[in-house]
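Support request from a user on the community tier.

User writes: "When I paste my structure tokens into the form, the page sometimes reloads and wipes my input. The last time it worked, I copied everything first. Here is what I submitted, just in case something in the input itself triggers the reload:"
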């Protein structure tokens, strides 16, 4: 289990590394956005009687294709992107309004795509497509109540880069949590196993049997171990020998017969 925890930890680190590389690429792409900051207050050059903050700037697109308009400002929230307008003009072509919501979703919804640039939040608001690369004129308008640091940015979509980096970071977090859980469980099991082995070694004696309890019968001495059980002391009962064995004479209770007289007769009564 500890080996599996190490593997999960390595995968988590790899996820963080790849996610970090992806985040670095996102930051690099964001830093290359073309930006216009509306600072002039008055009626819009595009017409209208309502005062706005506006600015006209030059943009250059190196290739044809799809681009995104981003709103950067301190008044941006996770759920609300302040209203603003963008007009583009290419050469002598008629200016056109960029008003397609990012993600091209219905019901006036905008697909969520956010980032942070130099401490300021940014979010995708519109998308547009150009058929000719080159120089463009852009007119941007925001409300007069917008913060002074509001900026309108133009560039390619960073949605794919952001999604990939976020996915790897999430994978890294999940594998890191799994690695920590496995590490804890493995260490607990190892500690428990060591305790059980220690208890087992204290409860059993040396190989060959259980130890004799205190105060039990003594072990046989060297003579008994070398020659067997010693004979019983004199005056005690001796067990009969095995069939065919030698019967020693009794050691006590025996009186020899009286010797005959000199004439060879029996003693008188």
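"...and here is what came back when it finally went through:"
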């Amino acid at each position: 289990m500890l080996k599996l925890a190490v593997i999960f930890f390595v995968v988590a680190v790899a996820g963080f590394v790849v996610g970090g590389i992806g985040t670095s690429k996102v930051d690099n792409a964001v830093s290359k956005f073309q930006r216009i900051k509306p600072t002039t207050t008055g009626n819009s050059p595009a017409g209208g009687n309502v005062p706005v903050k506006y600015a006209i700037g030059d943009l250059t697109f190196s290739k044809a294709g799809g681009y995104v308009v981003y709103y950067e400002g301190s008044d941006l929230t996770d759920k609300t992107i302040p209203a603003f307008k963008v007009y583009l003009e290419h050469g002598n072509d008629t200016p056109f309004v960029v008003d397609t919501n990012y993600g091209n979703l219905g019901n006036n919804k905008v697909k969520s795509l956010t980032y942070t640039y130099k401490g300021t939040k940014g979010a995708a608001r519109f998308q547009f497509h150009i058929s000719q690369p080159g120089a463009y004129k852009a007119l941007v308008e925001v409300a007069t109540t917008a913060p002074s640091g509001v900026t309108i940015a133009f560039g390619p979509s960073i949605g794919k880069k952001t999604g990939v980096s976020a996915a790897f970071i999430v994978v890294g977090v999940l594998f890191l949590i799994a690695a920590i859980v496995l590490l804890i469980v493995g260490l607990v099991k190892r500690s428990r196993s060591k305790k059980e082995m220690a208890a087992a070694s204290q409860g059993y004696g040396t190989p060959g049997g259980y130890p004799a309890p205190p105060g039990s019968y003594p072990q046989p001495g060297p003579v008994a171990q070398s020659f067997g059980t010693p004979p019983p002391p004199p005056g005690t009962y001796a067990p009969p020998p095995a069939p065919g064995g030698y019967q020693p004479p009794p050691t006590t209770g025996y009186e020899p017969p009286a010797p005959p007289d000199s004439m060879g007769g029996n003693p008188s009564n």
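Agent notes: The reload is a front-end session timeout and is unrelated to the input. The first strand starts at residue 34 and ends at 36. The radius of gyration is 52 Å. Escalated to web team.
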